[in-house]
């Protein structure tokens, strides 16, 4: 008996069903499916082990969260009524309109920095050891040997943090101090951005940043609309058209805003930057005036006014503005290498305690054994060297300096100096599209008429056809007369069966492209002597000068199309809300009345316009859109689908253009039904769509256009390089699905032979279930998904979705909000445990950049916001290849070698101490005292060990030529428990040889043991550095000889530790040489044999 499931949003049903079910199984409950491991099943059991392994951190963290939640209860965001120009009428307190990017304030700086430092086990351990030296019975050596290095590390960290904080403070102060004009009863006054309140009327000039979220009341533009630039909010460089509230725009003067009683009702502040719902009400008129407010009446903070002057009423300030709600707080980033070293230091600490207990046990737990145990712990504290942090931090600064000095990637800035090693461990790269992969510059490439196609090299033919078409029109005919008709009309009125000539088809296609759009020509005003704007005068005289005309539209594709029609002779010269004017090659002006506009939406994927030509009275409905939307509404043809495919393969963005001629009766009938639908209360959008659809039938197909969004320099080879390096690339963009897919193909993010699975829009659990099953059956195909569908999948099937998506060679997420981008980064971090890198260039990428383990910002057309928030700032996308392959590799390899060598330096001396103590009746007495220990960790070995930051295993050219070498780095083999154990064995062997050798070979006095073993120890360390180095640098040689020279020179002053008369004898020299040889020679032999019989992958290349 088969049981049927209904596809609805019933959670109880779906919870019992496994996701990995076939679509038939969804209907018929078949049992031939496999199930994915559910995220909910493998919850770890919590016990003592969990608590010790890090559970204590989780518990402490949740306690702190509870306390902070109680202390700082977040204010609930509410809808509000805002009276125009009356901030004092606000019912409740709203946040201050100040930008704040600082991590600390004056009081929290010191505690905050100290907490960030001492939450690391390494630093906390040194603090405890240093404090123990204040207890007389535990005192081992001089206080300065413990406190000086710790104080140095803390001072360096605090200075670095303080400099960063001061920079942030200055940037914030600059933004908060910007002056704006505020309208009051007494006229205009200047206010700082941070002093603006909800209800204020603010005047924003052209090219000025909008300081808070406002409702657009008035503009100086005659049309009652203005353009704003939103690149810092949503990353799109095209200008957006905003419309002023009709009631306030119609007022005779600006001052009248205070003579009316009006208020704005605004919904509660929310994240969505693409929607807004509110109402405008004027109370003092009879009857009351109500206007509904939508996104086109809003002016969000951080956008910039691009045309005219605007006046708005502030509705949201500070933390409640859309831009701040969409910005995540910067977190303190910690590199994976630092976490690995932290784990190793915990293992060393355990070894240290075990060693101390063994010593006490061999002693027989005699006397005050507990005190002796602590003395041994302090005695062996050199196992964990404090110089580890100092060396690594200095190394990081050195890598940062090398990156900024690299001539191959000029303009690169390292803003977070603590994580350069992360560049060598990346598995996922999440990139923005607009401005990052592309230049966001559209170029018209192709016009296809069905039988004939024109490319960039044949555009002059189109131009000559257009000149010819308009030359036939009598020049006396002006836009007002209706005497003559264009040759196009003649061909139209004659029998429609006759095939049109190519010339008339080109003419119609170009005319359609020149009319069907949302583009407005803007004339730059020349600063004339009187300082008045010349824009108006230019419009009045119809004196449209080509030089100072620029086009503005909500999409750069539209601008490219209109610029192209201008280049072939048909120029858009004027546009307002009712009319549109074109100029022919002969200079004649054609006027058209705009009767209706149907704007582009992501659902309809097309836009339409109905115009009436004033000279002839002809009404025409023009439409253009994506091929998927237009194929069903144009007349039958056999070429459209094939040509769209061809253009898409070339990476062109295609648009299908069509038209339909309407009689006056047809149009009147349509207008009546359309107005009726627009006034209906219920299902308004559905009714309007139905009326428009009645018009969209049997359109005459005019042409197919191809526009190219030019890619950034060398994007294709760079993406190829990253893919070969084993890095998975995800493209997260706010752009349309078609555009995103197109760029994914043209940039070779998706290779030519790969399939693309476009995830169908889903709105509930059942749909998501089916769609994920469909996606599961696809193998090795790229995924394209929209932000809305992604949200639904993550709500119900987070674990399953991420698991499937991570198997894809490439993923494209389109229509993503800034918050969603950050959410995807966090998801990958949680589910894969791999390192992520985010790269972007606009303000909308900041959240993603800050959430990633490594954030890279590009200084581009979209401003500097992304590059300032990033850890690394580059000037071009192609630089990322060298940044990761060369600098990422070197930073990681060098830090791994440096970290392990510094540990080896501590372990070898602790081994010697253990051998010494065990021979001398387990006494907790230090082997080397005072300056010998300080000197050993600093002047005698510091320079050669630190010179490892200049080492490289592969030449930069090789690393770029063979990106596959990068895959090894992501496995983390340069620093692992295996390599660490090898270093432990080396340390134990060398420490034992040095100590036993010195004890066996010394003859008379104990002082000789110290002299022989210490000198052999210094020589061993210098030789071990030489053994570790893979590529010599002249500074390394200098460091080796300088350190040796320092040691020899200091022997003259170390008479309290050494017997100077013994040091200058032959027995001393041969004993030291013999011990050093026995400790180092076997390691050199092993290294040689390993190199010969099992060489690493990179050495095969370099040979």
UniProtKB/TrEMBL annotation:
The gene is atp9b. Belongs to the cation transport ATPase (P-type) (TC 3.A.3) family. Type IV subfamily. It is an enzyme of class 7 (translocase). The chain crosses the membrane at residues 144-163, 347-367, 373-392, 902-922, 928-950, 980-1000, 1006-1027, 1034-1054, 1066-1086. Mg(2+) binds at residues 432, 434, 841, 845. GO terms for biological process: endocytosis; phospholipid translocation; retrograde vesicle-mediated transport, Golgi to endoplasmic reticulum. Residues 476-501 are annotated as: Disordered. It catalyses: ATP + H2O + phospholipidSide 1 = ADP + phosphate + phospholipidSide 2. It is a multi-pass membrane protein. It comes from Gouania willdenowi (Blunt-snouted clingfish). It is found in: Golgi apparatus, trans-Golgi network membrane; Membrane. Its main location: Golgi. One of its GO terms (cellular component) is endosome. SUPFAM superfamilies: Calcium ATPase, transduction domain A (SSF81653), Calcium ATPase, transmembrane domain M (SSF81665), HAD-like (SSF56784), Metal cation-transporting ATPase, ATP-binding domain N (SSF81660). This is Phospholipid-transporting ATPase. GO terms for molecular function: ATP binding; ATP hydrolysis activity; ATPase-coupled intramembrane lipid transporter activity; magnesium ion binding. Keywords: ATP-binding, Golgi apparatus, Lipid transport, Magnesium, Membrane, Metal-binding, Nucleotide-binding, Translocase, Transmembrane, Transmembrane helix, Transport. Residues 476-495 have a biased composition (Polar residues). It holds the Pfam family PhoLip_ATPase_C. ATP binds at residues 432-434, 558, 600, 624, 653, 733-735, 815, 821, 844-845.
């Amino acid at each position: 008996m088969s049981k049927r499931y209904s596809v609805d949003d019933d959670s109880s049903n779906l919870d019992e069903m496994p996701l990995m079910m076939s679509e038939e199984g969804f209907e018929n409950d078949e049992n031939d499916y496999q199930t994915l491991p559910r995220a909910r099943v493998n919850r770890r059991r919590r016990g003592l082990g969990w608590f010790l392994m890090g559970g204590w951190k989780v518990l402490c963290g949740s306690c702190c969260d509870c306390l902070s939640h109680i202390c700082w209860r977040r204010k609930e965001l509410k809808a509000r009524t805002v009276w125009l120009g009356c901030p004092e009428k606000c019912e409740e307190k709203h946040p201050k309109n100040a930008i704040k990017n600082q991590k600390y304030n004056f009081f929290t700086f010191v505690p905050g920095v100290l907490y960030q430092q001492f939450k690391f086990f390494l630093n906390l351990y040194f603090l405890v050891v240093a404090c123990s030296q204040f207890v007389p019975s535990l005192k081992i050596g001089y206080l300065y040997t413990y406190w000086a290095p710790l104080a140095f590390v803390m001072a360096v960290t605090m200075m670095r943090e303080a400099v960063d904080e001061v920079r942030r403070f200055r940037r914030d102060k600059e933004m908060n101090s910007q002056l704006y004009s505020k309208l009051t009863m007494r006229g205009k006054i200047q206010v700082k951005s941070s002093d603006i309140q909800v209800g204020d009327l603010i005047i924003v000039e052209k090219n000025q940043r909008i300081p808070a979220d406002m409702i657009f009341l008035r503009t100086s533009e005659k049309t009652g609309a203005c353009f704003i630039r939103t690149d810092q909010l949503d990353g799109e460089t095209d200008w957006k058209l905003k419309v002023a509230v009709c009631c306030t725009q119609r007022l005779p003067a600006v001052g009248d805003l205070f003579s009316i009683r009006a208020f704005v009702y605004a919904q509660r502040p929310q994240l969505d930057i693409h929607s807004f719902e509110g109402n405008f009400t004027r109370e003092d008129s009879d009857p009351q005036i109500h206007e509904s407010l939508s996104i086109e009446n809003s002016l969000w903070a951080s956008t910039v006014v691009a045309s005219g002057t605007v006046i708005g009423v502030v509705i949201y300030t500070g933390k409640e503005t859309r831009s701040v709600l969409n910005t995540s707080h910067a977190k303190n980033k910690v590199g994976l290498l630092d976490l690995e070293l932290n784990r190793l230091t915990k293992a060393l600490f355990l070894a240290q305690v075990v060693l101390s207990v063994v010593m006490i046990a061999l002693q027989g737990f005699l006397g005050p054994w507990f005190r002796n145990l602590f003395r041994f712990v302090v005695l062996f504290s050199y196992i964990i060297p404090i110089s580890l942090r100092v060396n690594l931090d200095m190394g990081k600064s050195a890598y940062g300096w090398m990156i900024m000095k690299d001539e191959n990637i000029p303009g690169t800035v390292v803003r977070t100096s603590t994580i350069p090693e992360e560049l060598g461990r990346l598995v996922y790269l999440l990139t923005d599209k607009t401005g990052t992969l592309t230049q966001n510059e559209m170029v018209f490439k192709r016009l296809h008429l069905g039988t004939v196609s024109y490319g960039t090299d044949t555009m002059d033919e189109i131009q000559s056809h257009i000149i010819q078409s308009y030359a036939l029109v009598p020049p006396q005919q002006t836009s007002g007369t209706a005497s003559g008709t264009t040759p196009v009309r003649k061909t139209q009125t004659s029998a429609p069966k006759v095939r049109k000539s190519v010339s008339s088809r080109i003419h119609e296609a170009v005319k359609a492209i020149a009319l069907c759009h949302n583009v407005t020509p803007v004339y730059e005003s020349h600063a004339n002597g009187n300082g008045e704007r010349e824009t108006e005068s230019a419009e009045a005289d119809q004196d449209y000068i080509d030089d100072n005309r620029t086009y503005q539209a909500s999409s750069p594709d539209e601008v490219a199309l209109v610029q192209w029609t201008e280049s072939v002779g048909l120029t858009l010269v004027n546009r307002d809300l009712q009319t549109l004017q074109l100029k022919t090659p002969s200079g004649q002006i054609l006027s058209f009345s705009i009767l209706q506009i149907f704007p582009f939406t992501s659902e309809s994927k097309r836009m339409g316009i109905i115009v009436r030509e004033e000279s002839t009275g002809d009404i025409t409905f023009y439409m253009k859109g994506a091929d998927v939307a237009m194929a069903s509404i144009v007349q039958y043809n056999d070429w459209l689908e094939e040509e769209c495919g061809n253009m898409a393969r070339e990476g062109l963005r295609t648009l299908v253009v069509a038209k339909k001629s309407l009689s006056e009766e047809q149009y009147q009938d349509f207008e009546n039904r359309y107005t009726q639908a627009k006034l209906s209360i219920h299902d308004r959008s559905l009714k309007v769509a139905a009326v428009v659809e009645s018009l969209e039938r049997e359109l005459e197909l005019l042409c197919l256009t191809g526009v190219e969004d030019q890619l950034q320099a060398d994007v294709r080879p760079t993406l190829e390089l990253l893919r070969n390096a084993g890095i998975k690339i995800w493209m997260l963009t706010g752009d349309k699905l078609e555009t995103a897919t197109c760029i994914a193909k043209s940039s070779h993010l998706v290779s030519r032979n790969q399939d693309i699975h476009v995830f169908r829009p889903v709105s509930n659990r059942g749909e998501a279930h089916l769609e994920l099953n469909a996606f599961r059956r696809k193998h090795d195909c790229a995924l394209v998904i929209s932000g809305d569908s992604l949200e639904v999948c993550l709500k119900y099937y987070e674990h399953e979705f991420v698991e499937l998506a991570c198997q894809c060679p490439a993923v494209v997420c389109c229509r993503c909000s800034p918050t969603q981008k950050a959410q995807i980064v966090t998801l990958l971090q949680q589910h894969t445990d791999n390192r992520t890198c985010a790269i972007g260039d606009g303000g909308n990428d900041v959240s993603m950049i800050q959430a990633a383990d490594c954030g890279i910002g590009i200084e581009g057309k979209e401003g500097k916001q992304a590059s300032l928030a990033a850890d690394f700032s580059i000037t071009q996308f192609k630089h990322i290849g060298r940044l990761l392959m060369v600098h990422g590799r070197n930073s990681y390899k060098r830090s791994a070698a440096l970290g392990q060598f510094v540990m080896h330096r501590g372990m070898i001396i602790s081994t010697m101490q253990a051998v010494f103590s065990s021979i001398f009746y387990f006494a907790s007495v230090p082997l080397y005292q005072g300056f010998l220990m300080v000197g050993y960790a600093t002047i005698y070995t510091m320079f050669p060990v630190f010179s490892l930051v200049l080492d490289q295993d592969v030449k930069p050219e090789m690393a770029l030529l063979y990106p596959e070498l990068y895959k090894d780095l992501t496995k983390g083999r340069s620093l692992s428990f295996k390599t660490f154990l090898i270093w432990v064995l080396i340390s134990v062997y060398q420490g034992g040889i040095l100590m036993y050798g010195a004890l066996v070979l010394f003859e008379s006095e104990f002082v000789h043991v110290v002299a022989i073993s210490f000198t052999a120890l210094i020589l061993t360390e210098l030789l071990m550095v030489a053994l570790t180095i893979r590529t010599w640098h002249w500074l390394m040689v200098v460091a080796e000889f300088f350190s040796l020279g320092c040691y020899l020179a200091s022997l003259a002053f170390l008479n309290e530790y050494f017997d100077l008369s013994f040091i200058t004898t032959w027995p001393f020299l041969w004993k030291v040489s013999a011990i050093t040889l026995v400790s180092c020679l076997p390691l050199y032999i092993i290294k040689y044999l390993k190199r010969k019989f099992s060489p690493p992958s990179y050495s095969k290349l370099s040979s």
